[in-house]
Design a protein that fits this description.
Two copies of one chain form a homodimer. The first copy, chain A, is 47% helix and 5% strand. With 160 residues, the first copy, chain A, is mainly α. The longest helix of chain A has 16 residues. The relative contact order of chain A is 0.17. The interface between A and B is large, with 50 and 50 residues.
Chain lengths: 160, 160
């Protein structure tokens, strides 16, 4: 059982942008650091931009950044929007033919319930949770006693 | 998100055998009626036989039948045993390389929890539940008032 490559790369692109120290990252940099092809990443970015998760900036110093804060990006919603075909079993496809027991088969409702439980679990997570360790480490660094420096929330390379 | 073709065909093979009126079905018949290739079905049957779900009978009148009653075949257990790689995201694979945020990424534990919820739901289903309508229809037929015929449970083509 696998996510499609498209939604896997969408999640990883968002995680990279949420995790990066840089305000703006280029497609080339994300592709290289996350071992994706630039062509595929461009398609992923286009969809994430349409969905309002990513902001693309044109020009010589252009690139990508998150369009919302990581706390406002729900993982289940990203997956629901980027998995073009949540057909866990092939016969969920309307195009599927050739099964002699389809009229009595109760597999679909069972798998639909299981899938609902899968998404209900991921609904509890935001992008911020998935990159928490990094943020926790940064927070710890920022709030560590340091004479003359007031503890402050670290500036993430993310802007709503 | 999809099951592997292997586990999908394993489930469908079991459902066909549980649903069939015939005591023994041939590989050719299951393949033809469920639109699978015989070669692939043979691999599936070998695994289902090793796992104790299917009994193969040699000889001219040989073939396949369930090795347990449908009530004793748990759907989550079939999937766990036949999905050779429950790596919902590619980076679950130990062979996966090239992700620059793997050291801080919290995606794996989140998806593992979601997957546990998926399987916990399917754990409630047996093969009997998935082919229930057929059995309900047969039961209704068998228990309908019919002078001179005592109501009886229909004989399914399944033997423990």
């Amino acid at each position: 059982m696998r996510l499609t490559r498209f939604s896997d790369n969408a999640l990883r692109c968002l995680m990279f942008l949420g995790h990066s120290d840089r305000e703006i990252s280029t497609v080339g940099e994300v592709a290289r650091r996350m071992s994706m092809s630039e062509d595929h990443l461009l398609k992923v970015v286009k969809r994430l931009s349409q969905l309002g998760y990513v902001k693309t900036i044109r020009g010589r110093k252009g690139g990508l950044r998150l369009a919302r804060s990581p706390e406002d990006i729900n993982i289940a919603e990203v997956l629901r929007a980027t998995e073009d075909n949540v057909a866990v079993v092939p016969c969920f496809d309307s195009s599927h033919e050739g099964c002699s027991i389809s009229s009595v088969c109760q597999l679909a409702p069972a798998v639909e319930l299981a899938l609902a439980a899968f998404f209900a679990t991921l609904q509890r997570y935001t992008l911020a949770d998935l990159i928490k360790e990094r943020r926790t480490a940064l927070n710890a660094l920022a709030t560590a006693p340091s004479p003359g420096l007031a503890p402050s929330r670290p500036q993430l390379a993310v802007h709503a």
